[in-house]
Amino acid sequence: MTAVLLIEDDDRIRLALLLALEEEGYTAYGAGSAEEGLRRQRETPADNVLIDLMLPGMDGFECIRQLRRDDDVPIVVVSARDDTHDIVAALEAGADDYVVKPVAIKELSARLRALRRRGRTAPTVPAQFFGDLEISAEAGEVRRHGQPVAVTRTEFRLLCELAEHAGRVLSRQQLLSRVWGYETGDERLVDVHVGRLRQKIESDPANPRHLVTLRGLGYKLQR
């Protein structure tokens, strides 16, 4: 049974979401602070983490960053804050998705299932080279100048999807469907993850050579 850790300081919201998740078939347990959530995830790792941003003490952004240092668990932000800056900042910190309160539990459950289906697997195509960049979907590795590049689960799948269709433009909606498993969704998810990848794989992220934007169309990976 899939386990979900919910980090939420509002007791009523936490209890309501935990009960709703259990009705959806999850094993759900909660934490009232970032510190408690980090401790619980270290001691009893969950399959997914849901986290609010406005937490006492350490905020959600820092909690996400700390989770990401040594854990590839899928992270979904569940927050009342719907400002673009907050969404982008949470994704840049390492979150995989962002859901604005009030939460529709069926939608949240569908997103959790999509995140788990993805895992870290990718199409088993031969290793591909883009200049000094090597992408090995089968080995689950990305290398630059022969050195490993640390990428998140989502970044890895996004890069593999673009590599599988090298030279072809994929729209943001196509990438949302193929990488995130969403039929509809916020295209900022794609933009932020592309930006993060460029910081890791491009010599000059402001003027990318390999992961390029086709204005109004989408993105492509080129040699």
Automatic annotation (TrEMBL):
Domain OmpR/PhoB-type: start-end pairs: 125-223
Response regulatory domain mapped to chain residues: 3-116
DNA-binding found in the keyword field: yes
Signal peptide location: none
Origin superkingdom: Bacteria
InterPro entries: CheY-like_superfamily, OmpR/PhoB-type_DNA-bd, Sig_transdc_resp-reg_C-effctor, Sig_transdc_resp-reg_receiver, WalR-like, WH-like_DNA-bd_sf
GO cellular component: cytosol; protein-DNA complex
Segments of the chain annotated as binding DNA: 125-223
PANTHER family, per the entry: DNA-BINDING DUAL MASTER TRANSCRIPTIONAL REGULATOR RPAA, REGULATOR OF RPOS
Protein name: DNA-binding response regulator, OmpR family, contains REC and winged-helix (WHTH) domain
Organism listed in the record: Micromonospora auratinigra
High-level lineage: Bacteria, Bacillati, Actinomycetota, Actinomycetes, Micromonosporales
